[in-house]
Amino acid sequence: MNGDVFLSPPSSRSVVVVPTYNESENIERVVATVLALEGAGLEGGMSVLVVDDGSPDGTGDLVEALRRSHPDRVGLLRRAGKLGLGTAYLDGFRHALGAGFEFVCEMDADFSHNPEDLPRLIEACLPEEEGGRGAEVAIGSRYVDGLRVLNWPLSRLVLSYGAGVYTRAITRLPIKDVTAGFKCFRRSVLEAVPFDRVQSNGYSFQIEMNYRAWRLGFRIVEVPIVFTERTEGESKMSGAIVREAMRKVWELRGRAVLGRL
Question: Measuring CA to CA, how many Å separate 158 from each of 146, 154, 176, 198, 199?
C-alpha cells in the first residue's frame, strides 16, 4: 500500500471512501461529481479517497491523474490485489482518520449510490447547532419511507429485504436497511470501533459496522435514497457473500451475549 494517499493536506471536513476493482468506466465521473458537491458540512469542498485493489483495467491510473490535478481533494490508496470489501473500507477509514477528516462517508463506485445524496447524509450527522440532525451514523436507506430500488430483479429484492428481516430478528438491530453501503460516520464512531476485531470482508461488513456502532451507543438515522442497479461494469455480488452474511449475524449476536464483541 502507498503511504501518502493525498499529495497535499486535505482542506475539507468531509471525505467519501470509494473501494474500486475494475471501475474505469465510472470512476472519473464519480470523482468529478463528488468534487462539485456543495452544502452544509462541505466547507472547502468534499474530498474523495479511492481504495483500488490493483484493478487490471487501469482504474488506479485514472485516479492517479485526478489526484495530481486535485492534490488536496483526491486521495488514492493502491493495494496489491483483491483483498476484500471490508479491508478496503477499513484501510480507507484509517487513512481518512489520519488525515483529520471530521465526517467519513462510504459509497460504491458504480452510481448505484447517487453521489449527489452525500450532502444529505453529512447534514444528518451535523450537530443540531449547525442545522443538522445530530446523528453519529447516517445510512442512505432503500427501505425507509417506502421501497426505493430501481432495476433489481424480484429475486434480488427479496434477498436484500429478507436479509434485513433475518438480521433484525437475530440481533435486534433497529435499522431497516442493514446491508446498505452508503453511509456517513462521524469520526468519533470510527475512532471507537476496534478495527482489529472487525472480521467481515463482504457485504456482512456493513451489518457488522452497524451493529458495533449501535452496541456502542451511537445514534443511527436512516436517510431515504433511491438505489439504482449499476449500468456499467459487473456486480460483485456472489453466493459466498450471502452465506458469509448469514453466518456473521449469529456470530455477532453470540459475541455480544458473551461480552466479547
Answer: 15, 6, 14, 27, 26
- Work out the burial of residue 28: count CB atoms within 10 Å of its CB; fewer than 13 is exposed, 13-18 middle, 19 or more buried: middle
**Cα–Cα dist 245/208, whole Å:** 9
In tens digits, the chain (261 residues) has pLDDT values of 445 799 888 889 999 999 999 999 999 999 999 999 998 888 889 999 999 999 999 999 999 999 999 999 999 999 999 999 999 999 999 999 999 999 999 999 999 999 999 999 999 999 999 999 999 999 999 999 877 777 677 777 777 777 878 888 999 999 999 999 999 999 999 999 999 999 888 778 999 999 999 999 999 999 999 988 755 445 554 456 667 777 888 888 888 888 888
Q: What is the DSSP letter of 197?
A: G
pTM: 0.91
Q: Which helix (H) or strand (E) holds 16?
A: strand 14-20
Give exposure, 32-55, as e/b (b: 16+ Cβ within 10 Å). Answer: ebbbebeeebbeebbbbbbbbbeb
All cell numbers assigned to 248: 456473521
Secondary element (H or E) of residue 74: strand 74-78
Residue 46: strand, helix, or coil: strand
Q: How many Å is the Cα radius of gyration of the chain? A: 17
**45 DSSP 8-state letter:** -
**Cα 234 from Cα 26, distance rounded (Å):** 11
